[in-house]
Write a structure and sequence with these properties.
Blueprint (H helix, E strand, L loop, with lengths): L16 E9 L8 E8 L11 H9 L1 H5 L3 E12 L4 E2 L26 H14 L3 E6 L5 E10 L1 H21 L2 E3 L14 E6 L1 H4 L3 H13 L2 H6 L6
Antiparallel strand pairs: 1-2, 3-4, 3-6, 3-7, 3-8, 5-6
Length: 234
């Protein structure tokens, strides 16, 4: 594709080559149609700078890493916005709803806003073959979550990215704006995260708690570096 149109290549050498990596059934077109997760390379076969999957795949294919069968459980929170005003779904325009408390996993037209989108997304993921394991209404009204996993290694990344794509398509059809912004509303309103549950084979075996504590210590030594890489607004 033309990488100069996406800011991924210069105009004088704009060709970007897609390498297919994962296939899912297409819930929108049905039949034999598929959705394909690809990563992107230069014509010379080098991964372009925004291709983070390439390095991740290298790590997960390392025999030492693969032998630990790393499990990931991803909890993706998101907020639905009214398109014309960029204000959460179910909120009075320019004003605020009642205090947080009754909305988390809530039911009823005065507590749950966007369940049809959440349910449609769940069904689309199941059809596609995504390893989705649940959904729920979140603490802030107009905010939802879905869970992917447990998935092993690079599969977790492929599945969460395809699930995000399906959610974008479904909110588009519904005429609602999707945001993954970690803090869409300032003040004492719940943020939206992408929580990552992780374990290795050694952690899941007897004595694994000591391995977990050591891993936490190692992570703490590079906490600021990790936060800086986790996206805007964190």
């Amino acid at each position: 594709y033309d990488g100069s149109s996406t800011g991924q290549a210069p105009g004088e050498d704009s060709e970007v080559i897609l390498y297919p990596q994962a296939i899912f059934k297409d819930p929108f077109r049905g039949g034999n149609n598929i959705l394909v997760i690809c990563d992107a390379y230069t014509p010379a076969g080098e991964p372009i700078p925004t291709n983070k999957r390439h390095k991740a795949a290298e790590i997960f294919s390392n025999p030492k890493v693969a032998s630990e069968v790393p499990w990931f459980g991803i909890e993706q929170e998101y907020t639905l916005l009214q398109p014309n005003v960029q204000w959460p779904l179910g909120w009075p325009v320019g004003a605020y709803p009642g205090p947080q408390g009754p909305y988390y996993c809530g039911v009823g037209a005065d507590k749950s806003f966007g369940r049809d989108i959440s349910d449609a997304h769940y069904k689309a993921c199941l059809y596609a073959g995504i390893n989705i394991s649940g959904t729920n209404g979140e603490v802030m009204p107009g905010q939802w979550e879905f869970q992917v996993g447990p998935s092993v290694g690079i599969e977790a990344g492929d599945h969460i990215w395809c699930a995000r794509y399906l959610l974008e398509r479904i909110t588009e059809q519904a005429g609602v704006v999707l945001t993954l912004d970690p803090k869409p509303i300032e003040g004492d309103w719940n943020g939206a995260g992408c929580h990552t549950n992780y374990s290795t084979k050694t952690m899941r075996e007897d004595g694994g708690f000591e391995v977990i504590k050591k891993a936490i210590l190692n992570l703490s030594l590079r906490h600021k570096e990790h936060i800086s890489a986790y996206g805007e607004g964190n």
